Amino acid sequence: MILYGIETEYGISRETPGPDYDVVAESIALVRAATQSGVRMRWDYSCEDPHVDARGFRVEALRQDTDEANYFAQDAARPLSFSEIKSDLALKNGARFYNDHAHPEYCTPECRQIADLVKQDQLGDRLVMECAEALTSKTTDREEGRVRLYKNNTDFQGHSYGCHENYLLPRDLAWENVSEGMRAFLATRQIFCGAGKFGWEDEDRYIGPGFQISQRSDFFSVMESVDTMQQRPLINTRDEPHADPNAWRRFHVIVGDANMSPYATYLKVGTTAAVLAMLNKVDPTRIPQLDDPVGTMREISRDPRWSWDCHLTDGSPTTAIEVQRQYLALVREALPEPEDGFQLDDWKKVLDDLETRPETTVDRLDWTAKLDIVSKFRDAENLSDVDPWLMSLDLSYHLLDESEGLYYGLRDQGQFRQPPGAITTQENGFPPPTDTRAHVRGLCVQRFGQHVEAAQWDHVRLRDETASLELDLRRLFAPEAVAAAVAIIERAQHVADLSPLPFAKPYKSV
Amino acid sequence: MPEPARRTRPPAPVPGGGGDDEGDGPSTPKVEKPNTDDLLKRMRKVDPDQARRYRQRTGE
Is A464 tagged catalytic? Predict the structure, then answer.
């Protein structure tokens, strides 16, 4: 069984950012302009520890600790507490929304079905867009001061921000199997889930113009580590399951691009979950291993011929498509039909198309759609391949404004296929997935929001005049158990009415 | 400075219509051919210097 979710850090700016533009203050203000109700500043940080490494140890320091300390010192000058700077909001769909490293970040609730994941990711886009409109409405000059949000991963100057995926896995799947089994897959999956980029970068600097298929591949230089902000690894070893650590591990994927196309999100998460589910069902020696996965990831992204050549550890030549086909074959053998609704034929189809007629994937993939429309514009305007306008158009592809963003322009013309779960413009509501513990968290926020003292992925603490209870969600994964709990919460009038929940226990409020 | 990408002129997109190779998955939208002219107008409004002004802090 695999649960998954996505965390997206959005880029934030104004139409005309002034010289004193403060991206941290903007991010805080945006989160605090949230249009969806939730529980504010009750996120429980006391149990988070990003230093714990899945390889079985705890690191003394992360590479970003120095930067973090500097940022913390800068932020200490603000007349705001730590909680106010974070401005965490636990939302009624079970999601989390907060200011993280000067970026508004939306974390989907845990999903079990790929359609739910697609929907919840899009609900996040809609939420942050509404926040941007709310914040813009408070400005005196609504044109120059218009808030601009970008679902991308770079500012083209070497500053990258993430779109991470999380996959809950059984702990008895050995870490070595996860790490070694995912390297070739993660290095090559960008051919269908890359978001495309007009520019080459390195960590902390712009190199020059040129198209590549991934936004993020420039920023990875290490095979495996617990870091996430500097010398980023292909395989992130953070061991923070947000569940019973004896039974579960969380695989934290940090190499992915933020996708505008929901179909690309569907492929990205659907294929990754399928491969993870396959790992403990096949002989690990059958899984392809690349000679240099980290270097290969960058070479594939920048390959102007789209041949995506690479080498296996035995020196034999292969291609990204062939590596993906090998993974697909292993997945078909291990689980012919993924339980989450993802269709393996859609994976095969995109590989077939990328191999024989990549231009046909503009109805699914961000990088081909972006390249196609920007190339048309370049030709129409007689621009050179190195014109900086191309980079601005790249940025506009990711603009979260349905009236101006280039992705939305293509979508509204019907160019993009919509995967299961994709929301329509007429569709309202902000519901949680109904078959994961996110439903319990979301219901607590909806029905007992004012009584929530602390919230986390794996627990919720509530207190009113009738009781103080902690809901321990570390083992709440069976859909039947979630449904039974939801029935109790929906009937409850007071916190004490939640006592029958098998995972509720009294706690002493501090 | 890297060599600019060479293969940057893919043929026209092929939207609309659901071909015979469609499976049970999501289908291609049944729409008229996208009006590229409208989109090119939208693109002309993009400030060429927009990316140059865009600055973010490193995130995760």
Answer: no
Give the mean pLDDT per block of 10 residues along chain A (510 residues).
94 92 94 89 93 94 83 84 94 97 96 98 97 94 93 98 98 97 98 98 95 98 96 97 97 98 98 97 97 98 97 98 98 96 98 97 98 97 97 98 97 96 89 98 98 98 98 98 98 98 90
A457 touches chain B (CB under 8 A): no
AA identity, residue A209 = P
Task: Taking the CA atoms of A449, A452, A453 and A458 in sequence, report the sign of the dihedral they define.
Answer: negative
Give the C-alpha separation, A460 to A510, whole Å: 15
Q: What is the pLDDT of residue B20?
A: 37
The Cα of A481 is separated from the nearest Cα of chain B by a number of Å equal to: 30
Whether B58 shows a pLDDT value over 60: the answer reads yes
CA A216 – CA A198 distance, rounded (Å):
12
Q: What is the DSSP string of A239-306?
A: ---SS-TTTEEEEEE--PPP-SSHHHHHHHHHHHHHHHHHHTTS-GGGS--BS-HHHHHHHHHH-TTS
- Top residue of B33, B37, B60 to mutate, by most chain A CBs within 10 Å, is B60
